Amino acid sequence: MMLTLADCGELELIARLRPYCHRELMGDDAAVLSLPLGEQLIVSTDVLVEGVHFSLGMTDTPVTMTPQDVGWRSLAANLSDLAAMGALPLGLTVGLAAPRNCPVAMIESIYQGMATCAQAYGTSIVGGDTCRSSVLSLSITVLGSAPPERIIYRDRAQVGDVIVVTGVHGASRAGLECLLSPQWASTVPAALQQAWIQAHQRPRPRLDIVHWLRQQVPPLRLAGIDSSDGLAAAVLQICQASGVGAVLWADQIPIVDDGDHQQALNWALYGGEDFELVLCLSPELAQDLCTAAGDRAAIVGEIIPEKRVHLKLNGELLPVQVNQLFQHF
Amino acid sequence: MMLTLADCGELELIARLRPYCHRELMGDDAAVLSLPLGEQLIVSTDVLVEGVHFSLGMTDTPVTMTPQDVGWRSLAANLSDLAAMGALPLGLTVGLAAPRNCPVAMIESIYQGMATCAQAYGTSIVGGDTCRSSVLSLSITVLGSAPPERIIYRDRAQVGDVIVVTGVHGASRAGLECLLSPQWASTVPAALQQAWIQAHQRPRPRLDIVHWLRQQVPPLRLAGIDSSDGLAAAVLQICQASGVGAVLWADQIPIVDDGDHQQALNWALYGGEDFELVLCLSPELAQDLCTAAGDRAAIVGEIIPEKRVHLKLNGELLPVQVNQLFQHF
């Protein structure tokens, strides 16, 4: 018989989830953490709802991930927000709401996925809460820190900066397509399929870039954000916050090789959930950053005074617009 | 026509909620906060679900609060966790999930209640997330700080300590009874009714005690917790964590004066949500603490070596048990 939350109760559930959490920090009214001397606290919260942000078969949405993937991916998205601020993680809390008929094994698997991701990036679950609801949801709050002079804000882009992306864009969207359309997937080489599905199910927050940036003396002047909402939205948000514009060079954007260039470019611009960093900095420093970020990193455009974002494609300047941005309701 | 979240969209909702949040800290991937020099970070997360922890008429549960009350009370419960750790607040994040048919005005009122409570205790909303769900829920993460030597843990109670409660217990439960049973309420003087309903709808986290404790040199040796789950559960949890037992003196517990002594005592022990502090410390220091905490604060028992919790009532020792503790599923 499958054990559900109703059979198990909250005390038993918490006992089962404890192995996935930092042992010494659990068990009081709150967790106690130490910040590295002189660093500031960076905090970000994401809410993820079954049937909206992920699917485990409790609603009509097609299932494209295991519960472990859901745990990994939910936390990776949050850690990516820390990376976008130039911060390294201190710990995280998880607020779980779940239906009474939810299998306990599913919840354990989600926590296992989160714990695996946390461990991979040198952090852990330090607290949280569990409660009953009619829908499964996770609210993750990540805590990180950074020296004040190394925090990355999105409003610091300057005219003359170039735009660097730390890796390929559109891979997560391509991975989703492989999972939703097996027929389409059958036209794609197996190794590519696997890489894209991995990008979708197990995205990697670019905390390695933060480690590299910490070693640069003096600190680089940067503006930045992550590309969780797609490359177009990332550049639009930097430009809006900085009071500038940008030209994106279509032929320089690292896209997936799916045999349909237009589709791949659309996925890169609007697909989202690649969790790469989009950074604006002076051209002289950009090449070093690309080298550090890996072989798909690239300089993909420049910051201009005119407050618009254009895509330069085959010699033409096309406007970039994101009408449906953030319409989560 | 009533504006719902579906009419409004996420961008518009966020713009409407912005006035209730810390202006300068919003708008990047994460919020940046500073800790007082040498202090540690204290973090606690609570999840609150409509129809489970509060009711605004979207489920069958009777409505006993306005949306503003729900906001105040949800945050107050979280701030009480900080007080129980000896911490003062730095800021909080709010993860909101809400149905598309939810009135925007209701959400604004909840945030207004949270912002009012935050302001009353010298803090503010510094970040968060909003998204669609089929049920209304709030996930609040409070961030606080304390000097390491002033953090209050629950596992530090010692045999010979007395148990202090910082105020009356059972008032929140009595307030709920007034709201659910107007007939019963009609037998209670209006001033008492009002005070109890206030205790239920607008509980006050005891951060004033933390301020007083900060002034004590050297720091008091304390064990402590808040009484969110009732006085009995609070004492049981301290005893369990500290490997000791306790005797609670029934005639010393500050209870509500509702004309039914047995019921008032039950509400004090098991009613919960009074959000007072329950502190264990040496008898010599306890009286000063009571004086600082107010005229309903009292010494209500003592810590004993035998690992059981007893209630001393009319000369008899009765066992205190909390079977249904934490059964939230």
From TrEMBL, chains A, B:
Residues 27-145 form the PurM-like N-terminal domain. It comes from the Bacteria. HAMAP family: TMP_kinase. It catalyses: thiamine phosphate + ATP = thiamine diphosphate + ADP. One of its GO terms (biological process) is thiamine biosynthetic process. InterPro entries: PurM-like_C_dom, PurM-like_C_sf, PurM-like_N, PurM-like_N_sf, ThiL-like. Reaction mechanism of ThiL seems to utilize a direct, inline transfer of the gamma-phosphate of ATP to TMP rather than a phosphorylated enzyme intermediate. Pathway: Cofactor biosynthesis; thiamine diphosphate biosynthesis; thiamine diphosphate from thiamine phosphate: step 1/1. Mg(2+) 3 binds at residues 29, 81, 226. Its EC number is 2.7.4.16. The keyword Transcription does not apply. Residues 158-312 form the PurM-like C-terminal domain. Substrate binds at residues 53, 273, 326. Pfam families: AIRS, AIRS_C. GO terms for molecular function: ATP binding; magnesium ion binding; thiamine-phosphate kinase activity. The gene is thiL. Belongs to the thiamine-monophosphate kinase family. Mg(2+) 4 binds at residues 29, 44, 81. ATP binds at residues 111, 128-129, 154, 228. Catalyzes the ATP-dependent phosphorylation of thiamine-monophosphate (TMP) to form thiamine-pyrophosphate (TPP), the active form of vitamin B1. Mg(2+) 1 binds at residues 45-46, 129. Keywords: ATP-binding, Kinase, Magnesium, Metal-binding, Nucleotide-binding, Thiamine biosynthesis, Transferase. This is Thiamine-monophosphate kinase.
